Amino acid sequence: MPPLSRFRDPRHTNYRFVDTVLVRCPKCAEVAHVVPGVCLASDASRPSVSAPRRLICRNCGLTRESGDGPGFFTGNGQACDPYFQVPLWLQLETRHGWLWAYNLEHLELIRQFVQAPLRERAPWHDRGRKMTLIARLPAWIKRAKNRAEVLRAVERIRSSLVT
Ligand SMILES: [Zn+2]
Question: Which residues constitute the domain of residue 152?
């Protein structure tokens, strides 16, 4: 059995992928980045989820600083980043709903999950992280009969980033 046929939930949560979020620039509508703002140089660990964020557009030069902490998107419509509530770049509306990812690493995790015929859940005794990113995916993304369609959507989202 090839290794990719089995997917093991790495039990990441949405927090795992918010260090770099790709968004649609509110000024020029090109791709912009939301990254941790003022970096605490003494701290080599990952920046805190609640640390201030900075929106940077290399195309038009827009920069913004976030005020409040993250407010994670939970709706069914177009997805926004947790800090500026600006629409994500990596998203696409399918006939089932919106497929979205914060960044390419996140999109790749979804792709690996969807393409794997065998999917392992996080173990039942792992009480700490029941609601992993994978567990939270909408049911239509998890349905086997939607697999080809979801994978096509993933590829279309990925190709939207080719410059
Ligand atoms: Zn811009």
Answer: 3-159
